[in-house]
Amino acid sequence: MNEKQRVHAALSGQAVDRYPVTVLYNQLYNRDHFAELTDESQWHVWAWQCAPPDRYLALYSRMVEKAPFEVLQPDIAPPRDVRENTTFIEQDGKHFRLNKKDGTLTELPAPVSGHAFDERANETQYVFDKRDEDEWVEIRRAEQIIASGANDYLEAAVTKFGQEHFILSGGVVGVVYSCSWYVGLTNLYALLIEKPALIEYLSHKILEQNIETIRQLAAAGGDAIYIDDAMTTSDMISVKHYERFSLPYMQEMVREIHRLGQKAIVIYFGGIADRLEQIASIGTDGLQMETSMKGYINDIGETVRKVGDRVTVFGNLDPLGMLQNGTGEELEAEMKRQIAAGRQGRGFISCTGSPITPATPLARVLKFLELGRKWGAV
Fold first, then answer.
1. Tens digits of residue pLDDT in 217-240
2. Which of 36, 123, 202, 349 has the fewest CB atoms in 10 Å of its CB?
């Protein structure tokens, strides 16, 4: 089996020669470890993320060769006009982004700690009623997004790798967290109780945009699309609120992904042991969950038993305590344990429970891939 066939089979509950081994959100790993994976300056990561498709693909191909994950996740391209009017320069030891249209120079932060970009949750409420929501949530149709050039990198990667490799074209964020962009993250949880109709109307608007984004991603010709159902886990909301404010929207998005001939993967960074039955009812092909932490336990064995033959489960290896800091013996033992648990279910894919940390060297990533392939043989 080639990698594409193997991942498709695992996600469909069909026989495989061995379980695939990968990391979701591996585009974050590529950014954090750009220099290690390309032999270029880490500063060049900024230019790479705004490069013409052929330049992007050349460096991406080096990354795939050095860290051969079995699910590839290329980047969404910046708008074509932005790429054509942006260049990067160095002056007096500092690095800048130059807007060629107006000559504006913007100094770049050093991409050396954490992920290559940082994000801070919105805490400002911008919408207070339906009129505000209609004004603030502007729907961009799939055709508009494609016309901007967003699929350029994906299409280049599909052309080169799509016959042999499984490509995760990207994904969308679930509606609950997306509401925070308009009402503020802290406010959001109070509004679920105080103004549920406001959140439901906003969620339907966000769902409409997510459907358009799913259509845009599917048009690139890859194999799968993910939904990161952020902030709907046991450490954040009740099962009752999950069933009302997340589940029906997740089901609708998965239906659209399947209608377009794609595999669907749902991702949960948080505790899900108390809502596995609901998650299994979404109809998704694959489920990735976070490593046990922050007071909750996401056990592979329990998850596999509860979802049964309805969902293929991804591993949730601890990327810090095990992949980065564990001994070789500890890493191997944990991978064997997770694979053994995965054998009891519909399908299994060895994976970390969160993105690879910036301090994890390539040698450890290659060891993870080696062990997964060794113990995942069927």
1. 999 999 999 999 999 999 999 999
2. 123
How far out from the chain centre does Cα 240 lie?
A: 26
The pairing of beta strand 94-99 with beta strand 105-107: antiparallel
Gyration radius of the chain's alpha carbons? 21
Flag whether the pTM goes above 0.90.
yes
Sheet with strand 263-268: strands edge to edge: 168-173, 224-228, 263-268, 286-289, 312-314, 348-349
Nearest Cα residue to 37 out of 1, 8, 64: 64
In this structure, what are the phi and psi dihedrals at residue 338, rounded to the nearest 5 degrees? -70, -40
**Cα–Cα dist 315/15, whole Å:** 18
Q: Check if the beta carbon of residue 287 is closer than 8 Å to that of residue 250.
A: no
Q: Are 135 and 38 a contacting pair, CB within 8 Å?
A: no
Element containing residue 8 per DSSP (H, E):
helix 3-12
